[in-house]
Every structure is written in C-alpha cells, then in structure tokens.
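quick one: zinc ion bound model?
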Amino acid sequence: MICMSHCLVYIPRRAFCVNHHVRLGTRTKLHFYTHIPKQISDDNTLCVITLSPAQLTTLQHHAEACYPNEACALIIGRSDANKKITDEVVIVENAWQNDMGHSQRDRYLIAPSDIARVDRAASQHNLDLIGVFHSHPDHPSQPSATDLAQAWPEMSYLIAAVYAGRVTTLQSWVLQDEVFVEETLRSHEP
Ligand SMILES: [Zn+2]
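yep, here:
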C-alpha cells in the first residue's frame, strides 16, 4: 500500500480471501507504515510492480478527477517472472453504463476496443499490458468480489481508495490460486 500523501510503502503478506470480504459502508481506519516488510510469494519469488513517481501522480490525479465515479487506466510495461516494470500508464474512459442498480460510482468497464488499441500499441514497442488500475470511491483499496470475478491471471490490479475526493491509499493485487494476494508496489525515480 502506498500512502499517496507521504509516499510510504506497506506490503503485508497475506492472502486476501474475497469470499469473506464485504465492501464496507463506512470509512475504515487507514494504517500507514514507514518500513518495507519483506514479501515472498509461494514460490519464494518477490512479487513486485514498479511505477515512477510521475506515473503514480498521474493515477492519483485521474482518480481524484473522476471522483465520485470510478476511474480506470491500463498499465503498460515489462514483466519478468513475478517482477513488473511500468513504462506507461494509459488513462482510459470508464465505459460503464447504468445497469442493474449500479453506476460508475461502484462499477467500471474498460471498452474492449480500448484494451485492444492499447495492447496493440504496447506490442509495437515490445511491451505488454501488465496491469489494470481503477479507483474505489469511498471504499478501501482492496478488491471486491466483482474485481475477483473479472480478474485475469498474471495481471496486476492496482486499486486506489478515494475518500472525499482525495486518494488515500494505493495497493496492487495479483491472482494466486484464484484469490487475490497483495504484491509489493514500488516507486522509483525515472
Ligand atoms: Zn474494484
């Protein structure tokens, strides 16, 4: 978890079982950490995704600009085993249309045409689509059951919690054995 206001990094090593997760209706207390605990995945490989401070700022500003709706973006870069390096974050439109009682306040949809366009452009630069970003307005930066149902293997899912129009935390998640586990989110200077 990155605290956007202080750029601190927190990496718990704990499987997140979505089946036991309910979205909280009230604001939860957020914890910030000043150290980087070691996180080892099941195969003893560090799960890491790295973004530059500018890329993090882009995601933060986009999430705040879209509040109270969910924002989304695609993450382009390179992956090697369980390590991912971000080359670019591509802002995309939340294409969710009001449906079944849900609006863009609690749902996002990235148009398949946007995914295809960004993926094609990435391939032309020998890069891959390595992750998806979206925001949770007034909810924690943890995946919902809907996020789990839509998740693709090997992709990173970056989620920003936005409370009262301000991003408070950013976390990244990956699927392991059909549950989300948190991966280390690092920021580096370009
Ligand atoms: Zn979500």
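The chain has three helices and ten strands.
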